[in-house]
Write a structure and sequence with these properties.
The chain is α/β, with parallel strands linked by helices and about 325 residues long. The chain contains nine helices and 17 strands.
Length: about 325
C-alpha cells in the first residue's frame, strides 16, 4: 500500500494533495498494490469521497477535536501511529509548507528515510525510485530508500492530476488519541491576506515580474494585466522578493513555489535556473525582456524584446480586445 496524507484547507482537499494521490495511484498500480488516502482533522470524514476519484482505494479518517487546527506535533503522532498499524510500503506528502513541516517529523518518529521535494517517482525493478533537485536545481539526484515505510514529499504542480477511479471506496475511521503534553504550541488565530488574490499555485494565468521592474510600484502593471483574466495571479522572481518589492507568497522558483498555469507571463525576469525550475512546466510561456540574450527567452514560446514599461500597457489593451471578441 502507498498511503498519502491529504492536506485540507477551508473544508476542501488541496489540489497539491490530489496531485500527490494521483501519482501514488499510478505507482501503486505498477507495484500491484493499493493507494490509500489519509485525512486528519477535527471533522473531515465528509471529505473522504473526494479522494476516491484520484486513485484511492481506501480512505483512513483520523478525527479528534484536538486536531481541528494543524499541529505538527499532534499530526505527527496520529500519522506515525497509523503507519505503524497499517504498515504501508510508502507514505507520500505534498511538498507544501505543511507537508515539508510534517513529513520529517513523521519520518523521525518512524525511524525512516525521507526523500524531499521530489519531481519524479518511478518504479524500477519492483521498487520505488525518487528524483529530487539538488544544488539549487543545478542537478538532480535519483535515490531509493532502504527503510520502510518510504517517506517522500512531492512538489506541487509537477505531477498530473488525473481522475482514475470511480468515486467510491472504503472509508476506515480510526480512533486518534492525542497524549497530554504532546501539543507544545496551538493555533490561536489565522490571518489571511486581505487582497483577495488567488495563490499562484492555483492560478490559470500567472504574470510575474523581476528585477527589471526597478521597484515595487511597477507591480501595478502586472496586476493590470492579471486583472484581464478571470483566474490570474501575480508572481515574482526571488530578486524582487528579496528586494522587498512584493511578499514571499508570490515567489516562483526553486526556493519559492512551483507553478504550472495555462499561461505564464515573465516581465523583466532574466531566467536564472532557479526561477526556471519553478515555472518551466507552464503550458505557454511569454517573456518580455530588454536583453535579447536573457535565458528566459530560450524557454519562452513567445518572446518580446523591448521596454516592459511600454509593452505591458499595450499588451493589456490588446488582451482586453481579444478577450472581448
Amino acid at each position: 500500500m502507498i498511503a498519502v496524507y491529504l492536506e485540507t484547507r477551508d473544508g476542501k482537499i488541496k489540489k497539491s494533495s490530489l496531485e500527490t494521490l494521483s501519482e501514488a495511484g499510478r505507482r501503486a498500480a505498477e507495484l500491484g498494490v493499493d493507494a490509500a488516502a489519509v485525512l486528519v482533522g477535527g471533522a473531515v470524514a465528509d471529505l473522504a469521497s473526494g479522494a476516491f476519484a484520484y486513485g484511492a482505494a481506501k480512505v483512513f479518517v483520523l478525527e479528534n477535536p484536538a486536531l481541528a487546527d494543524y499541529s505538527s506535533q499532534a499530526y505527527a503522532v496520529a500519522l506515525s501511529d497509523l503507519a505503524k498499524e497499517i504498515g504501508p510500503e510508502a507514505l507520500f506528502f505534498p511538498a507544501t509548507a505543511m507537508g515539508r513541516d510534517l513529513a520529517p517529523r513523521v519520518a523521525a518518529r518512524l525511524g525512516a528515510g525521507l526523500a524531499s521535494d521530489c519531481v519524479k517517482v518511478a518504479v524500477k525493478e519492483g521498487a520505488l525510485e525518487f528524483t529530487r533537485p539538488i544544488y539549487a536545481g543545478k542537478a538532480f539526484l535519483t535515490l531509493t530508500l532502504k527503510s520502510r515505510p518510504q517517506l517522500a514529499t512531492l512538489r506541487p504542480n509537477i505531477f498530473a492530476l488525473a481522475e482514475t477511479r470511480p468515486a467510491s471506496g472504503e472509508v476506515i475511521r480510526k480512533t486518534v488519541t492525542v497524549p497530554d503534553g504532546s501539543i507544545k504550541g496551538r493555533v490561536t488565530e489565522v490571518l489571511k491576506e486581505e487582497s483577495g488574490e488567488i495563490d499562484v499555485t492555483e492560478a490559470e494565468v500567472v504574470v510575474s515580474g523581476g528585477r527589471g521592474l526597478k521597484g515595487p510600484d511597477a507591480f501595478s502593471l502586472l496586476r493590470d494585466v492579471a486583472a484581464v483574466f478571470p483566474r490570474a495571479a501575480v508572481g515574482a522572481s526571488r530578486s524582487a522578493v528579496d528586494s522587498g518589492w512584493i511578499g514571499h507568497q508570490h515567489q516562483v522558483g526553486q526556493t519559492g513555489k512551483t507553478v504550472s498555469p495555462n499561461l505564464y507571463i515573465a516581465a523583466g525576469i532574466s531566467g536564472a535556473i532557479q526561477h526556471l525550475a519553478g515555472m518551466s512546466s507552464s503550458k505557454v510561456i511569454v517573456a518580455v525582456n530588454k536583453d535579447p540574450e536573457a535565458p528566459i527567452l530560450k524557454v519562452a514560446d513567445y518572446g518580446i524584446v523591448g521596454d516592459l514599461f511600454e509593452i505591458l500597457p499595450k499588451l493589456k489593451d490588446e488582451l482586453k480586445k481579444a478577450l472581448a471578441d
